[in-house]
Amino acid sequence: MEKKLKAWIKSLQSPKTRKATGCCVVEGLRTFTTFLNSVHILKALYITQKALHEHKQLLHVHHYTVITESTMQQISAATTPSGILAVFEINQTKALLGAGVVCARLQDPGNAGTLIRTCAALGKKTVVFVESVDPWSPKVIQSSAGTIAQMNIHELSWHALQKEKNNVPLFALVTQHGQQPTSAHAQGLFVVGNEANGIPTQWVKDCDQKITLAMPGNTESLNAAVAGSIALYITLLHK
Predict the structure, then answer these.
(1) Does 3.30.1330.30 match the CATH number of domain 2-89?
(2) What's the DSSP call for residue 165?
(3) What CATH code would you report for 100-237?
């Protein structure tokens, strides 16, 4: 069993396998609990004896398997495993696009997860991934603190986004020559571009408006997740 378990969990570290199986790996009590209370379906739960003793509330979960600390260390993607690892079946959203953020060619899972967490905190339900990191990778899930389970996650091409956005405006976050974020509609989607290259020129042109954050400190740019989070928060204050 241990050998098969290791092979299965290791296979789910691959985006290709996650897409083929429709499953993702979730670690940690808070993240696990958030997923458990969402539309996603628990397929398997693995827990160490120590973690089970510390979190007796998990006993209400009908199916779980106790594994050794050594096995958990081998299957976990965390440097310091929490002792709780689960596999969930991803229930892909059918919701219409609404207020939130577009991750446009973002490659850093930490940035993607942070933007998801910000949207969740501010009551924005839509996060669109366009040619970006896999939203269901363990690092994105962890960086979102599990809030990805509460969100409407869409994986679309830029062309498909243009067709499906309906009346939801797109606001391109650019480093210069854009308007202040207070001019953006609170029910729009902020497009946050690639960490190194920003948003492709044509995509910027396709957006309804360009938005630039003032940087009186004369820095060249802000971190992608920081910029997106600030813009979202400012529009929340001025809605």
Answers:
(1) yes
(2) -
(3) 3.40.1280.10
Amino acid at 169: P
Q: How far is CA 107 from CA 17, 130, 139, 198, 225, in A?
A: 19, 11, 12, 11, 11
DSSP string, 69-126: HHHHHHH--SSS--SEEEEEE-----PPP-SEEEEES---HHHHHHHHHHHHHTT--E
Matching residue, tokens 């946050």: 192
Q: What is the pLDDT of residues 185-210, one digit of tens each?
A: 888 999 999 999 999 999 999 999 99
Which amino acid is it at 184? A
Spans of the chain below 50 pLDDT: none
In contact, 46 and 86? CB cutoff 8 Å: yes
pLDDT of residue 239: 61
Please name the residues in contact with 71: beta carbons below 8 A apart, sequence gap of 6 or more: 2, 5, 6, 46
DSSP 167: T
Helix (H) or strand (E) holding 171: strand 170-173
Residue identified by tokens 């040619």 is 131
Amino acid at 89: E
Domain boundaries, the chain: 2-89, 100-237
- The SS3 of residue 210 is strand
